[in-house]
Amino acid sequence: QVQLVESGGGLVQPGGSLRLSCAASGSLFSSIVMAWYRQALDRQRELIAAINSGGSASYADSVKGRFTISRDNAKNMVYLQMNALKPEDTAIYYCASQGGYWGQGTQVTVSS
Question: Percentage helix, strand, coil, to 5, in the chain?
Fold first, then answer.
């Protein structure tokens, strides 16, 4: 079983940056795919970034070039660096792992 805890959300102005962190439990962390999703108000949850055990990453078109997913297998951590934030990035951001495990989410609000 995997437990995931996100942190790092908050209020930021348009054009600003935030770094989300996800702490994972479990001895198999280094071998599983990790991902970040987000869900805006009245919208479906969407996959925005994923990273495999080898560090290869993929991104949704909406965040490509602005967001970077990374992982530290020694620390059981996954990160999402978000730059050039826009109001439409406002959402609850969730960390998820292969096998269907989810964190509780962290709110990101982009507003002036």
Answer: 5, 50, 45
**Rounded CA gap, 31 and 54, in Å?**
8
Residue 22's nearest CA partner among 67, 60, 89, 75 is 75
**Tokens 């942190």 sit on residue:** 7
Rounded Cα–Cα distance for residues 100 and 93 (Å): 16
Q: For the chain, what is the largest distance between any 2 Cα atoms, rounded to a whole number of angstroms?
A: 42
Q: Which residues pair with 107 in a beta bridge?
A: 92
Q: Mind listing the pLDDT tens digit of every residue in the chain (112 residues)?
A: 889 999 999 999 999 999 999 999 977 888 899 999 999 999 999 999 999 999 999 999 999 999 999 999 999 999 999 999 999 999 999 999 998 999 999 999 999 9
Structure tokens at 10: 């908050």
| CA nearest to 22, candidates 37, 9, 7, 38 | 7
In this prediction, residue 17 carries a pLDDT of 98
Q: Which residues pair with 7 in a beta bridge?
A: 21
